[in-house]
Amino acid sequence: MPTAATSGGFGDGACPRRVLVVDDDAAILKSLGRGLRVNGFHVELTGRGAEALEILGRKSVDAVVLDVSLPDISGIEVCHRTREVGDDVPLLMLSALDETQDRIAGLQAGADDYLVKPFALRELVLRLDALLRRSAGARERDARGAHTVRVGGLVLDPAAHRAVLDGHDLDLTRREFALLEVMARNAGLVLSRDQLLSRVWGYDVAVRTDVVDTFVSYLRRKTEARGRPRLLHTVRGVGFVLRDDRAGTG
To answer: Per-residue pLDDT tens for 216-227?
Structure first.
């Protein structure tokens, strides 16, 4: 079996899948490094958040596996700083905690997925495969050019990641923007929590559906500021719908 050292280096192979793994548990780090390499990934390992940020700043990485608990900078802070500089690398967080608020904190910081320890290596590989497929699809859509979405007073520019409501910019996280975009593209249609979970998070069961309610509440707080009327409506027992009643949508 190969050792846990970095395999080959980033950029090797015709289609490398380059993963940075960050965990302060040396045994877990070694095991993940070995297991991911066996599954075709090029792996770089570190046990510290500061070093992870340094690696992300100088190397092209296809995905990050990031533990929440680190000795210097928390995984959530690493995630937040990564997104703050505009890096959209797929990021999967690991945690020994299975609390809803912990999952929400990670996702709100910009994580794309959340896996609770202990977990099977096979599940991690499948999650990474799904994240990489989703990322590739997003890049392809960007290359084709994303169209502006307009619903009443709401204007979304996916290419610029800009949301404007009644002439005012909305300060949205990546996940909030993605959720709002899906709902805006389906304005007037009721989407179930499972549908939103699948379309925005990219899988059906990895995150509990109550996370959707939490992110809808985040969006409501921002879209209803300055006394604006409600844009995101709950259809009890079914799901949510984006409807601008002033514009007659839906």
So the answer is: 999 999 999 888
CATH number of the domain located at residue range(s) 17-142 in this protein:
3.40.50.2300
CA distance 241 to 231: 8
Task: Tell me the pLDDT of the chain averaged across its residues.
Answer: 81
For 64-106, write each residue's pLDDT tens digit: 999 998 999 899 999 988 887 778 888 999 988 767 777 788 8
User: Residues of the chain with pLDDT > 90: what percent?
Assistant: 37
The sign of the CA dihedral 204, 209, 214, 219 is: positive
96 CB-near residues (< 8 Å, 6+ apart): 69, 116, 117
Give the fold, CATH level 3, of 149-242: Arc Repressor Mutant, subunit A (1.10.10)
Quickly count: other Cβ atoms within 10 Å of residue 113's Cβ. 25
241/232 Cα distance (integer angstroms)? 6
Q: Which residues pair with 123 in a beta bridge?
A: none
Structural domain spans, the chain: 17-142, 149-242
Strand partners for 20: 44, 64
Q: How far is CA 31 from CA 18, 115, 153, in A?
A: 17, 16, 51
